[in-house]
Design goal:
Helix content: over 70%
Shape: globular
Number of helices: 7
Order of helices and strands: HHHHHHH
Radius of gyration: 17 Å
């Protein structure tokens, strides 16, 4: 039991570390006028990092432990659940929650959009954080590549969203409160991933990992990649490849 408690705290700590990038990014996005092209470039790089981590850290491990069928079903289920939840939130005003420009609606333009954006940001962060706790169950140690990948992808998420929220007229207290809360909940999600699935078989843990991976990939395509392409244009692909290669190198050299 003591070992389980230590493992849960370990998972929560690394989940909080990865989630803290959202707060750092939000602070930069609020206080520094970062060019939208630079935000898009960082977003593209973070997307590439996460896609690589999904391929070589999450899906590969899930396939080895649970086989193709369970892995595929979990992957598609995660993407489907995320897409449905994202569609519902988009109808409430959260469609452009990661956009740094003037796409986000203000509360006056669409009542309830502030809450929808906050819930949407939480929806984006939970699967990533759970992966950290699940990686501890699978390998006996938290996946360094997963933590680094999530941290690097969270930086532009917080930066871009905070810049967009500021343009939409939301207060500093609201913006930083949202991201601080999500960072704390990220630690809680990592803890939950470890404790809830700790007593289950490795095949079930792997299937759940595939669910999280599907949700993360759907999130990337729905929210991060459009922002990257909108501003970085022809360079978005190259920058995404650089992010992918960086994560790939970490997975092989770590």
């Amino acid at each position: 039991m003591a070992g389980d408690a230590v493992g849960a705290l370990h998972a929560a700590f690394w989940g909080l570390i990865a989630g803290s990038a959202l707060v750092v990014g939000a602070l930069v996005g609020w206080f520094v006028r970062v060019p939208t092209r630079l935000i898009a470039a960082v977003m593209a790089f973070g997307s590439g990092v996460l896609i690589s981590a999904l391929s070589f850290e999450l899906m590969d491990e899930a396939y080895r432990a649970s086989g193709f069928a369970a892995c595929a079903v979990g992957f598609l289920a995660g993407a489907t659940l995320y897409t449905l939840a994202g569609w519902l939130l988009a109808r409430q005003g959260a469609k452009h929650r990661k956009r740094s420009g003037a796409q986000q609606p203000s509360e006056a333009e669409q009542g309830g959009s502030g809450l929808a954006i906050a819930v949407g940001a939480l929806l984006d962060g939970i699967p990533e954080s759970m992966v950290i706790g699940l990686s501890l169950l699978q390998g006996g140690a938290v996946s360094t590549v997963a933590v680094v990948a999530i941290f690097l992808s969270n930086l532009p998420e917080g930066l871009s969203s905070a810049a967009g929220m500021k343009r939409a007229g939301r207060s500093a207290g609201y913006v930083h409160g949202v991201w601080l809360s999500i960072a704390l909940l990220s630690g809680g999600a990592a803890w939950l991933g470890y404790t809830v699935f700790g007593g289950l078989s490795s095949s079930i843990v792997s299937a759940v990992t595939a669910v999280a991976a599907g949700a993360i990939l759907a999130m990337l395509v729905d929210t991060m990649i459009p922002e990257a392409f909108q501003e970085a244009h022809n360079f978005a692909g190259l920058i995404t490849v650089a992010g992918f290669l960086t994560s790939f190198a970490l997975s092989k050299l770590a």
